[in-house]
Amino acid sequence: MILVSAKMVKTRKAHRCIGCGRKFPSGTVLQALVWTDLGIWSDYWCEVCTEYFGQHCQPDDLFDESGLRGNDPEGWEEVRVEIESSSSKEEAKEEDCTPEEQRQCTKQVLAEEG
Ligand SMILES: [Zn+2]
Fold first, then answer.
1. Residues 6+ apart with CB under 8 A from 14
2. What's the predicted TM-score (pTM) here?
């Protein structure tokens, strides 16, 4: 899977983070991701998984179903402690990744592929 788009959003619905499997209620700031592989789809990551990804992974790394936490529970836990001990939060717009945004991302990917 290749990451094509990522942005922080405040969710309107509850979502499960695909990186660690934790479930977050509406109003949580999560990273909305758009992936491309054979198709294109969107997922959500929590702040911890976003930070973990930034520290340990490359955007074109491959991911499997066990997620970030499943692949490296100790490394993930270290990042979680780091995040939860810092009080600064980024401001985010209140929106989910909409079907329209997904379509736009698809167009963008197709355009880049020529
Ligand atoms: Zn997570």
1. 23, 24, 25, 26
2. 0.65
CB under 5 Å of ion ligand 1: residues: 17, 19-20, 46, 49
**Could you give the CA distance from residue 57 to residue 96 in angstroms, rounded to a whole number?**
24
What pLDDT score was predicted for residue 73? 93
At 68-94, the pLDDT tens digits run 899 899 999 999 999 888 755 555 555
What residue spans define the domains of the chain? 2-113
**CATH architecture group of domain 2-113:** 2-Layer Sandwich (3.30)
CA of 23 to the centre of ligand 1 (A): 9
CA of 51 to the centre of ligand 1 (A): 9
